[in-house]
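[agent] plan:
  1. take the single chain provided in the ticket
  2. run structure prediction with default settings
  3. attach structure tokens to the ticket
  4. add a short note for the reviewer (M.T.)
[agent] executing step 1
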Amino acid sequence: MRIPNRPATTIGKGEPPTPEYLIDLHQVAKTFQGAAGTFTALQGIDLQVKSGEFVAVIGKSGSGKSTLLNMIAGIDRPTSGEVIVNGSALHLLSEGQVAAWRGQNLGLVFQFFQLIPTLTAIENIMLPMDFCNMYSDKECEQRAKSLLELVEITEQANKLPSALSGGEQQRVAIARALANDPPLIIADEPTGNLDSKTAATVFDLFQDLVRQGKTVLMVTHDKELARAVPHKIEIADGRINSNSHSATPGDKS
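[agent] step 2 finished; step 3 output follows
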């Protein structure tokens, strides 16, 4: 089963070229002001990730992993440096522009699923499509059904999240992340709330997505899963550990 694609579009002569890197960070730093003074969450981050790569982000709690994801997702702004994702300089965009960009370029998967409890599985999947207004009502429903089939829970389409197991809810969350066919999936501890068997099944789904051309950036504390990911970056004290298997060019390990 393959991911349903967006409707075909005609690319004009003025269309910008495809960027070399899907994720391209240059000297990104982030500081926060608090009662105790200034806290530096990220410092001097350089990171390049090509399309179709599967990258695990590892590190201790408080190392800066979540802040790094927030930079790439446009949820937070760098104090200094450049954040370029799929050719867009997120650090230069307005909040409204970032929100519109995120709806079409990024899928987010969380540890605790974050499904709307009053919406059925299929309605949760259709929600991002409604926000971005990219499809007709008929197309939204067809895409949602195709995505439910992709994650193998078609029979759960009309159930509320409370009636689903944790693994089923995470499958719905993955389908929702794919709703607008984004090139990048960011997953923050997507298996952290699942048993080992269900976690392995969810991990297999991510591997299938990468084989179909998606780029997946996954934060995980699961050492076994991290070992199975082709590229790894380790964050320590707000910096990328130079001894980690980076997703930058030249690393073939």
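[agent] step 4 note for reviewer: The first strand starts at residue 23 and ends at 34.
[agent] ticket updated
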